[in-house]
Design brief:
Blueprint lengths: L1 H19 L11 E11 L6 E11 L5 E11 L2 H7 L1 H4 L2 E3 L5 E5 H6 L1 H10 L8 E5 L5 H4 L9 H10 L12 H8 L6 E9 L6 E11 L2 E6 L1 H10 L6 E5 L7 E17 L2 E17 L8 H30 L6 H8 L1 H7 L3 H6 L2 E12 L11
Parallel strand pairs: 1-4, 1-5, 5-6, 6-7, 12-13
Antiparallel strand pairs: 1-2, 2-3, 7-8, 8-9, 10-11, 11-12
Amino acid sequence: MKNKRNIKSIVIVIISAYLFTGCWNYREINNLSVVAGIAIDRNELDGKYEVTIEIVNVKKGSDVDIDSEYITLCGDSIFDIIRNMISISSRRLYFSHAKIVIISKELASESMSKAIDWYIRDAETRTDIYLLISKEKTAKEILMAKRRENMIVSFDLAKVIQNEKNVSTTPKVDLWDFLDILKQKEVNTSLPLIFIDKSGEKEVPRIEGMGVIKDDKLIGMVDRNTAKYILFTTDEVNAGILVLDRNTSEPISFEIFKNRTKTKYKLNDGKMKIQVFTDTIVSIAEYQAKQPFYTNEEKEVIEKELTNMLEESIYNTINMIQKEYKSDILGFGITLHKDYPKVWKELSGNWEYNFENLEVEVISKVQIKNSATTSKPIMGD
């Protein structure tokens, strides 16, 4: 009898779970406009905010085509603009699938947090969206620059950012990471730059380089090569290319297989010095020189040259960030706080000055793993 009651109870629970389970905020997709990306500008005529969104547009017919359309609107606040866009789209905007937010360099120079405040507070948005800064006059022109028909620009750019690890010329920063760094006193941050490449037959968006952020504002931009050595310093390089030019017309290109960077402080007579250690494994990907390199002695010569080049490039990049921007986007403050909390307490009150004048030593180690499918120059003496 007891077993029957137990079985009956289990059956009731199962049936109840089936009948009453559902999504509390379920809505029909036909009533929503799925947003893929957002561009935020300052309107040059009246100085108000200007927001452009890319909406996924599914066209039904004999074949299903996926394209995008755009809505642009101006207003006093970004949230007000987003809500007023319903009068244009006729459907409520759905941001959970949005992949990128592009901020104009003008707005980024004023305040990054103000530009994204609305997005953070909205209950329907997600913080794994990528942040980018436009090098062009506006962010809108980049969002609307299609490289081909029937494409979603925002989704395409998100894939480019995800594959950036293969070239290491720009940071990959989502909104969550950016917000986390903004809350820390020990460090500033950087964001990827995006511009329109006009070198080919078609003008297409391209992502490379980084914008230097200090105190919530964009204070400068660095090119792809400088960005690469910043990423070396912050241990964010796992792939990419190094080129040893040797001041000749016969450069050697190396593919990076692996890199590990460690930073640690050394305290001598009360003076702090930070040491940056890099350990890099590469292979020769292109060899235009005529000198042979297939013996251990010749290989060691090339390794030494590449090591010196890497040390000098990283050191010069760090020095430039210290003297020109005075913005600790390198994470030196975090390392000091972790290794010497008492020293950090003393120096943190004037960290900008201490960061600028911090002594730096770069120690690199490079190992050539192989030379691809051949160990000899194609043309030799």
